[in-house]
Amino acid sequence: MSGQDISSNANSRVLKTYQEARLQNTENLRKLVVDAAATLLQEEGPEAVTVRKVSQKMGCSTKIIYSLFVNKEGLAQQLYLDGCKLLANEFEATPQAADPVQHMINLGETFWQFGQRYSSYYKLMFGGAFADFKPDEESVHGTVTAMRQLITVISNAQEQGLIPAQYDTESIVRIVWSSLHGVIHLYMGGHLGDVQSAHAVYKQTLSLIARSLLPDHII
């Protein structure tokens, strides 16, 4: 190999290393911005998450944030995806049960607790807190991934013939999710009294849904 080839290979390695370092620095900066936005989200609520307030918390110009996320909606999408990961982790940690009704009730209770523990994330993801933000295909896929545990328990019950075949899995998941979200949304809007009263309505709704889908499995 000639000296010129060796020099060329060395330059390629340096260039590649520089490109990787630049990409890594950009990703690290994105993460810092998202962390700052997430802190505002949890401490002050969705209305506090503006490019200006995030830049103030970061101690940087708004231009930097715009260069990374284009606009507030781009930042909201990243927070949405982070919320999906949080929800997925909560579902993964939910105790499993041999009885599908109990398993569904356990998962439903996890969804309620997620709405309480991460209320700002919940409002951003499902409560329309960012009026101009609409989940794109990636965000929707993140939601499906987060709901995987619920999808699995319903799908397994169908395969065992425990849920009538005329209902497809996607429709059932949407019905369950919509019903439970409805209770949480009403509670957040102040329509169901205090948290204990709202939780009681939620548990009754969850129980009715589970038993209507699986009437032969009484626990």
What does this structure look like?
The chain has 219 residues and is an all-alpha fold. Helices cover 76% and strands 0% of the residues. The longest helix is centred in the N-terminal third of the chain and has 42 residues. The protein is elongated. It starts with a helix and ends in a 6-residue tail after the last helix. The model has no long low-confidence stretch (mean pLDDT 85).
Please tell me how large the radius of gyration is: 23 Å
* Percent in helix: over 70%
Mean pLDDT across every amino acid position? 85
How many strands in all? Answer: 0
Number of helices: 10
Question: In terms of structural class, how would the helical and strand content be classed?
Answer: mainly alpha
How does the major sheet shape up?
A: none
List unreliable stretches of 5+ residues.
none
Helices and strands, in N-to-C order?
A: HHHHHHHHHH
Principal-axes geometry comes out as elongated
How widely separated are the two ends? 76 Å
What topology does this entry show?
Blueprint (H helix, E strand, L loop, with lengths): L2 H42 L6 H8 L3 H8 L2 H21 L7 H18 L1 H8 L10 H10 L1 H12 L9 H20 L6 H19 L6
Protein name: TetR family transcriptional regulator
InterPro entries: Homeodomain-like_sf, HTH-type_TetR-like_transc_reg, HTH_TetR, MT1864/Rv1816-like_C, Tet_transcr_reg_TetR-rel_C_sf
Keywords: DNA-binding, Transcription, Transcription regulation
